[in-house]
Amino acid sequence: MPIRLTVPLNFCPACGARLGRARVDGRDRPWCEGCGYVAFHTALVWAGALITDDEGRVLLQQLKIGRRAGNWALPGGLLEADETTEDAARREIEEETGLQVRLTGLLGVFSRPGDPFVGVVYLGEVTGGELRPDSGARFLAPTEVPWEGPFDHWAVEAVLRFWQRRMTGGSG
Questions:
Q1: Most C-beta atoms within 10 A of its C-beta, which of 8, 39, 65, 129?
Q2: Paired strand residues for 77
Q3: How many domains does the chain have?
């Protein structure tokens, strides 16, 4: 399966020369003949949570900006180098929704070959803050979830299907 870069890499970030290809560590990788730079395709880590309320509803966010506008997402975002995945999940959820949450456990880690994102998804509950009306986020009952999507990432639907099985008493 071909590796999908998050940003196309045509020029060397070290010296600016056009990149060629070389076999390094058993894989074809972008390589700079001029300075020896090798580009490794590493994944970006996304952290977020499946947040439910006292009525058993799940918090979903309908994105409003850019090419992903209209897609449904779990609240969360990318991990920064100076934080844990738990810290990133709490920070991103508060930034995006205005809600403060307590993470109650790890739901799962979601990845697929060729996908540049690894999703770390926690279970969470609201402990403070107020849901910002402009956030596009709202709590939805299982019958209100837009199962037809579009979802922002394949893992969103996977997490929601897990939640749906738990809500209906199925294994999961």
A1: 39
A2: 47
A3: 2
Inside any domain, residue 102: yes
Asked if 104 and 49 sit in the same domain, the reply is yes
Answer yes or no: is 61 within a domain. Answer: yes
User: Does 2 reside within a domain?
Assistant: no
- Parallel, antiparallel, or unpaired for β 99-110 and 72-73? unpaired
Q: Half-sphere exposure (CA, 13 Å, Cβ side) for 52?
A: 18
Q: What is the pLDDT of residues 86-105, one digit of tens each?
A: 999 999 999 999 999 999 99
Q: Are residues 105 and 72 in the same domain?
A: yes
Q: Is-contact 151 74, C-beta < 8 A? A: no
CA atoms within 13 A on the CB side of 85: 17
- Please identify which residue in the block is written with the tokens 């969103």: 156
Model confidence at 84: pLDDT above 70: yes
**What dihedral do alpha carbons 76, 80, 84, 85 form, nearest 10°?**
30
Range of the domain at 16: 7-41
Q: Look up the pTM and report it.
A: 0.83
Q: Beta partners for 45? A: 118
